[in-house]
Amino acid sequence: MNGLSMGRLKYLFEASRLGSMRAAADFLDVAPSVVSRQIAELEKVTCTPLVETNRRGAKPTEAGRLLIEHYRNHLAQEESLASRLNALVGLSIGTVSIGAVQGFADDLMRHVLQPFHAQHPGIAIKLQLGSINDILGWLEQDEVHLGLIYGPGFHSHQGRLKEVRSQLQPLCVVVCAQHPLADAPLLPVEALFEHPFALAHAGFGTRKIVEQVEANLHRRLKLAMESDHLICLTGFARCGMGATLLPAFAVYDDLKRGTLKAIPVAHPLLTEVQAQLVARRGRALPTAAQRLQRHIVQHMEAFNALSAPG
C-alpha cells in the first residue's frame, strides 16, 4: 500500500507510545502540526481513522494498532538483521535490554551480567527495574527484550507473551539467624501473625500475594514497615526488627553467609509462586539477547530448584 512508509508510521507509533501528539512532537523534536499532518496522511492512505483523541490524549484505533504492530515488527526485523551481522564479527557491539522486579537484581548481576560482560565487553546492558505490570507492558511495547517477573503468572497477557522458563520459588519468611522463627524447617501460616513484618508497598507482586493470604484467613499481619526498596526490607530483617516475605533467591548471598534464614510457609498462595523469564511472542530476539537468555536460564539462582543454600 503506497504511502505507508516507515517514516510516517514512526509518528503514529510515538503518538501512541507517549499518549499525545504534543509528547510525540517533543520526543521527535518537531512541531505538533507535523505529527498531526503525518498521521492524517496515513488516514488518507488507509481510508480509516487511526487515532482517537480526547482530553486524556491520543489512543490508537483497531486499525491504528495494526499499523503500530507492523511498525514494531519492522523494527524487530531491523534489529535482528543488525544482530546477525554483528554476530559475524563476534558480538562486538550491541545492546540488550532487560526488565526485572527488584528481587532479581542481585542474582542477575552476580551470576549472569558479570560473566556475560567479561565474555562480551562490547555489549551494553540496559536494566530497567519495575513492577510486574511495568515489565509486561515494556515487553508488549518492545521496550525490553526479556522480562524477569515473580508471581502466580501473567494470564491476561499470554496472547502476546511467552514464558521462556519458570521455576517454583515459594514466598518465604525471611528473618535474621537469631529470630525465634529462624530454626523452623516449615512454618504454619498462623505463625506469621505473631510477629512484626516489613512489606513491599501495596501494588507490588509480593504484597498482592500477602493481601490474598490475609483475605483468605480474614486476618492481617502486624505491619511494622512498608518500603518500595528491597534493601530496606532485607535490612529490617537483618537488624532483627522482625520478618519480611521474599523468595530465597532474592537473599541468596545472605543465606550463604548465614546472616538471614528463609523459611517456607505451609500455604498454597505462598508456595505456588514462580520466577519467570518472559519474552514477546513472535519477536525475533537479536543474537546477543538470545545468548543472554541462555545465561539467565543456566546460571541464575532464581531458575535453580535448590536456590536456598543448606
Automatic annotation (TrEMBL):
The keyword Transcription applies. It holds the Pfam family LysR_substrate. Residues 4-61 form the HTH lysR-type domain. GO terms for cellular component: cytosol. The keyword Iron-sulfur does not apply. Keywords: DNA-binding, Transcription, Transcription regulation. One of its GO terms (molecular function) is DNA-binding transcription factor activity. Belongs to the LysR transcriptional regulatory family. This is HTH lysR-type domain-containing protein. It comes from Dyella japonica DSM 16301.
